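Practice problem: Chemotaxis protein CheC
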Amino acid sequence: MISLSEDERDALQEIMNISMGQAANAMARLIQTKVTLSVPAIRTMTPQDFQAMIHGMSNSWFARQSFLGTLRGEVITSLQKEGCEAIAELMDFELPLDHSATEELVLEVTNILSAACLQGFTSQLELSAQLAMPAFYYPETTPQDADWSSILLMDVDFRIEQMQFDARVLIGLSEGSTSELLIPIRALLES
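Answer key — structure tokens:
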């Protein structure tokens, strides 16, 4: 299991806070509406715990985006089903949303949030990670096929309060990537 000291966790949380703020700003510019975000939660878990958590989010649409580079892992974005039509209207989608338009909306929001989060995060630490294209994800029928023995999960909620819209970005890092991540964080803590 991955272990982080309290200082490492605090430093990672602050770096993620900046990155997620950039993602919230990117989303707010697109929809011309204020987006708030939670303080990022950093925790380690087993793939089984991760699956249980995802299955507990049954009122959401999901998309997955893998990334490779110095860091390897996957970004999973969930969008609460309630409120999707309101965000779709702001993004000039034709309503009501059919299945195809719902998938397009989820993938577009995923791309905006994932790219801003990961780019902000890796650039602060001078690491590299290239995102693949997002894919719609059905956790109840598609097993999580990551080969991770343990997962470092960075979790943040994005909210548009007047619309009851909630999106959540989960970044899972493979165990080897966590070691790479800790090198610049430890250097920051020592300086």
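Discussion: The chain has one domain: 6-190. Students who identified this feature from the tokens alone can consider the problem solved.
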